[in-house]
């Protein structure tokens, strides 16, 4: 008798859900598989090669930095700093985004200036304030290493080129997902995968908190750009090295008044579209408990600041957000959800032997 | 590092291990210089000098530094050329590889790994956490 | 030395209990050091001078 009632309930709820679903901007989806592009299928050789390159400090001008310098495996592939580590004597102006679930993004970087992992991979290598290595020179650096010649032959049946270097690194990055996140188990039907507080937080996430309007899908991001007007960090404005970086990037993107720029214009530099002024890519929330500090300039040290920021309706003058009116308990439950639900098993990396 | 010793004095113990990068020409010889100085009781003087003078760490410069800090230059040079302390460096290198270290500097603060040239404030925060935890 | 190991063990244990701070045990004999053997905090630095 009870079972029949329950079935009826489920049927009814599913019916209602099916009707209601299209009204939502998007839904949370459990992680099932990683999207792989046709033009760069995975192979064991490619992934191993990409891993070697990822940890190889040869890819920097002075040999002090590799991709892993800012994308530290133990820190969910971030570096725990407000702004990324940078090439000696310089300073970066933006926070290191995590590489967890990066395969799910179409837009890479905070300003989305490239649309594939392959296009992204060599950018930091040649960036003057990051790894600072000339790409022509990079090719020659690797060509004189017999182990790399052999590895590229095995993976690509050919010579070492910058395109292949990027493809190998991208192939490795596509393996960076964490399994068994409680959220995935919960979404697949395991109700006990989340604690009671986390379940309350989940409800806030998809309802009162409205987080799901931008943080949806398997990697909890709409892959779009929103100007939340996160406050500028006054230290960054005063720091001459960050000022140099800010002006340099603006100059490279042909922003006329780059010499007087005092804030980070975000995606505007790429599209020159007014609506993109100070707009940044919605980050993934996967492994969010491990990717502090937060926001494009790392100005929020912890999740409390982040939640308060959204609760108050975002930064001054923004039109994307409205105040939420969350109670202290609701904020706590939301935080519990973020910390508990989105951390999966650690990615097991077998560290490569660098030739 | 000097800042750390100045601030925390007896509460902190600093230990140096060597992880010379294969492709920096003077990484290894400067580690040998540091240990050669250590044999003559002046490790920290040489350590500080090497950091300040990097990348001028070629053999002649190193001998100059030995003179500068008042070492027995002949003994120092012999130690350098004979690779007297290669054993310690090899041992540290092996340990670094076993620990999967891919960057220098890497710190272990009461065993907690901190990777890279982190700002002093960042190190300080972790040291403070450890000091507070121990005081309990 | 035993005391240091004990403290390390305890802190390892505590480490597990708290927010999973991973701790590594580093052998320290034979390396140049500054400061008392029983200091509250031990900092090991893997360094490359160049």
Protein described:
The complex is a heterotrimer of chains A (355), B (136) and C (50). In chain A, α2 packs antiparallel against α7 (146-156) and α2 (44-55) crosses α8 (162-173). The radius of gyration of chain A is 22 Å and the shape is globular. Chain A has helices spanning 2-20, 44-55, 67-70, 117-121, 123-126, 135-143, 146-156, 162-173, 182-187, 196-206, 234-238, 240-252, 268-271, 303-311, 328-341; strands at residues 225-226, 280-281. Chain A has 355 residues and is mainly alpha-helical. Chain A is built from 15 helices and two strands. Mean pLDDT of chain A is 92; it is low at 17-24. Chain A has a two-stranded antiparallel sheet with strand order 1-2. Chain B has 136 residues and is mainly alpha-helical. Chain B has seven helices and three strands; from the N terminus they run αβαααααββα. Chain B has helices at residues 2-8, 27-39, 43-53, 59-68, 73-81, 86-98, 120-135, and strands at residues 12-18, 106-109, 112-115. In chain B, strands 2-3 form a two-stranded antiparallel sheet. Chain B starts with a helix and ends with a helix. Chain C is α+β, with helices and mostly antiparallel strands and 50 residues long. Chain C has one domain. Helices cover 32% and strands 18% of the residues of chain C. Chains in contact: A-B, B-C. The B-C interface holds B 1, 4-5, 8, 10-21, 24-27, 30-31, 34-35, 38, 43-44, 47, 50-51, 54-55, 57, 88, 91-92, 95-96, 99, 101, 104-113, 127, 130-131, 133-135 and C 7-8, 11-12, 14-15, 21-28, 30-37, 39-50. β1 of chain B pairs antiparallel with β1 of chain C, so a sheet runs across the interface.
Task: Summarize the model shown.
Helix content of chain A is 39%, strand content 1%.
CATH overall fold name of the largest domain in chain A: Cytochrome Bc1 Complex, Chain D, domain 2
Question: Mean pLDDT across all residues of chain C, rounded?
Answer: 74
Poorly predicted sequence stretches spanning 5 or more consecutive residues of chain A: 17-24
First-to-last CA distance of chain A: 68 Å
> Helicity range of the residues of chain C?
25-40%
Residue windows where pLDDT falls under 50 for at least 5 positions of chain C: 9-19
Strand content of chain A is: under 5%
H/E element sequence of chain C: HEE
As an assembly, this protein is heterotrimer
Task: Let me know the CATH homologous superfamily of the largest domain in chain A.
Answer: Cytochrome c-like domain
Helix content of chain A: 25-40%
Portion in beta strands of chain C: 15-25%
């Amino acid at each position: 008798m009870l079972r029949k009632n329950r079935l009826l309930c489920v049927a009814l709820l599913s019916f209602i859900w099916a009707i209601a679903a299209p009204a939502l901007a998007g839904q949370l989806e459990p992680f099932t598989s990683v999207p792989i592009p046709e033009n760069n299928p995975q192979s064991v050789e490619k992934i191993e090669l990409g891993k070697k390159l990822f940890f190889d400090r040869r890819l920097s001008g002075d040999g002090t930095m590799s991709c892993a310098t800012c994308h530290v495996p133990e820190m969910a592939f971030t570096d725990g700093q407000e702004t990324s580590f940078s090439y000696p004597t310089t300073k970066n102006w933006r926070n290191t985004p995590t590489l967890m679930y990066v395969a799910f993004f179409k837009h890479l970087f905070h300003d989305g200036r490239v649309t594939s992992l392959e296009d992204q991979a060599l950018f930091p290598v040649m960036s003057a304030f990051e790894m600072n290595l000339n790409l022509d020179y990079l090719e020659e650096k690797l060509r004189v290493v017999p182990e790399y010649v052999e590895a590229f032959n095995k993976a690509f049946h050919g010579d070492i080129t910058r395109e292949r270097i990027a493809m190998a690194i991208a192939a490795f990055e596509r393996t960076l997902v964490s399994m068994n996140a409680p959220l995935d188990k919960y979404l697949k039907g395991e109700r006990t995968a989340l604690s009671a507080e986390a379940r309350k937080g989940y409800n806030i996430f998809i309802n009162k908190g409205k987080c799901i309007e931008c943080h949806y899908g398997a990697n909890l991001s709409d892959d779009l750009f929103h100007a939340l007007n996160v406050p500028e960090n006054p230290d960054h404005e005063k720091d001459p090295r960050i000022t140099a970086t800010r002006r340099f990037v603006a100059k490279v993107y042909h922003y006329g008044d780059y010499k007087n720029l005092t804030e980070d214009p975000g995606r505007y530099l790429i599209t020159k579209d007014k609506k993109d002024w100070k707009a940044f890519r919605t980050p993934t929330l996967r492994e969010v408990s491990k990717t502090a500090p937060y926001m494009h300039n790392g100005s929020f040290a912890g999740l409390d600041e982040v939640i308060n920021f959204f609760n108050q309706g975002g930064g001054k003058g923004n039109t994307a957000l409205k105040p939420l009116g969350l109670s202290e308990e609701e904020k706590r439950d939301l935080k519990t959800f973020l910390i508990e639900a989105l951390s999966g098993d650690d990615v097991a990396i077998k560290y490569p032997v660098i030739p | 590092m000097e800042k750390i010793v100045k601030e925390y004095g007896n509460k902190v113990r600093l230990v140096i291990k060597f992880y010379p990068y294969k492709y920096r020409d003077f990484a290894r010889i400067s580690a040998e210089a540091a240990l050669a100085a250590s044999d003559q009781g002046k490790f920290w003087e040489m350590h500080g000098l090497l950091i300040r003078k990097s990348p001028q760490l070629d053999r002649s410069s190193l001998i100059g530094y030995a003179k500068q800090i008042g070492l027995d230059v002949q003994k120092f040079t012999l130690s350098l050329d004979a690779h007297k302390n290669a054993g310690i460096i090899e041992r540290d290198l092996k340990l670094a590889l076993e620990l999967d270290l891919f960057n220098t500097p890497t710190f272990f603060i009461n065993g907690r790994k901190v990777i890279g040239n982190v700002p002093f404030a960042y190190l300080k925060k972790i040291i403070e956490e450890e000091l507070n935890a121990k005081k309990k | 030395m035993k005391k240091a190991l004990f403290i390390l063990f305890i802190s390892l244990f505590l480490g597990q209990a708290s927010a999973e701070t991973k701790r590594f045990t580093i052998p320290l004999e034979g390396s140049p050091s500054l400061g008392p053997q029983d200091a509250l905090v031990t900092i090991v630095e893997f360094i490359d001078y160049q």
